[in-house]
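User:
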Amino acid sequence: MRIEKVTEKVSLKRTIDQGTQEQQKVVEAIIEQVRSEGDEAIRFFTEKFDGAELASFKVTKDELEAAYAHIDDKVLAALREAMGNIRRFHERQKRQSWLTTEEDGTILGQKITALDSVGVYVPGGTAAYPSSILMNVIPAQVAEVRKIVMVSPPGKDGTLPAGVLVAANELGVEHIYKMGGAQAVAALAYGTESVPAVDKIVGPGNIYVALAKRAVYGHVDIDMIAGPSEIVVLADEEANPRYIAADLLSQAEHDALASAILVTPCERLAEAVATEVEKQLALLPRKEIAGASIRDYGAIYVTKDLEEAVAVVNELAPEHLEILTAEPMQLLGKIRHAGAIFLGPYSSEPVGDYFAGPNHVLPTNGTARFSSPLNVDDFTKKSSIISYSKTALMANAEKIAALARLEGLEAHARAVEVRLK
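Assistant: Predicted structure:
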């Protein structure tokens, strides 16, 4: 793992793969075919890309019940406890509508309304992601979204992983469909004979899913276009190099494009972590993926002091930030840009990924400078409320008309003045 002394601003920002022109054309063609042919197109693409021939896409109650036979009781208990933690955390995010009344009779306020329907994309591929279901479905439920539709690509046998089915069933998700890729995004956006159209699509996916979400945005809302996963560890001489190496590798094994970075003012720690990363990497089942990530996007930055280390972290604006210093809480106020912040040696990043409660759907690629983790607000919309009394309008009509005429909008001015006669 390369070690560099910080001599100027460093950047974790990488160009998120926007897709080749060929990939974009493929996605556009898939979306158009789904819009025009509906289920027939979904069936065609599911066989082509997933190798599964399906007569029906919707997961049945029998499939959901059968999945429990493949889940260990201890795993199920842990899943249920994680659900409770995540729900309690998100319940605290819920906002209430409000009204305020002025002495002149004016009433102003804001009305919070849950979205009618949301589509949750759950990726497949090299792993199953029950945790993705919890993190996307629970805040939608807390927001009181009326309909949640889940899609996930099937295996060649036409089934979904048991963990995915159990997680969805535990949450009471009723609309689950075996489909993935750009075709599933198109189905959620525009609807088919089987799949109801939704108002917003959330959840991660591959480049084709990302391009499809970008293509349908505007017709429906989306959560974000997420890039590869990232972790930055901010540590001093008190930190344990074995812990740091393990945490860096926990993100590196996600994807060859994932980024794992240590920022520290301690050269001795930097060298110990570099050695420990190589030692632990050799023992990982996904060592080829993690090794490529560490080689191409991993780094250890050595700063002159802790203050400069904090500045580097804020410049990086990472998805995940671990603070492993003697007094991590003292640095919390100095951190301006990070998706999720993990304090102390026992707050390893996977604690947040699976169990603690905060959402693990986080801004990547430096976008933590201006965006937030997925939360209950993402599943609601706000309406402003304005109720002017006659007294209030009479007192302010002249000012309102003057502002309208400043913009050259005479009809606006007259719409107020007509009420003065």
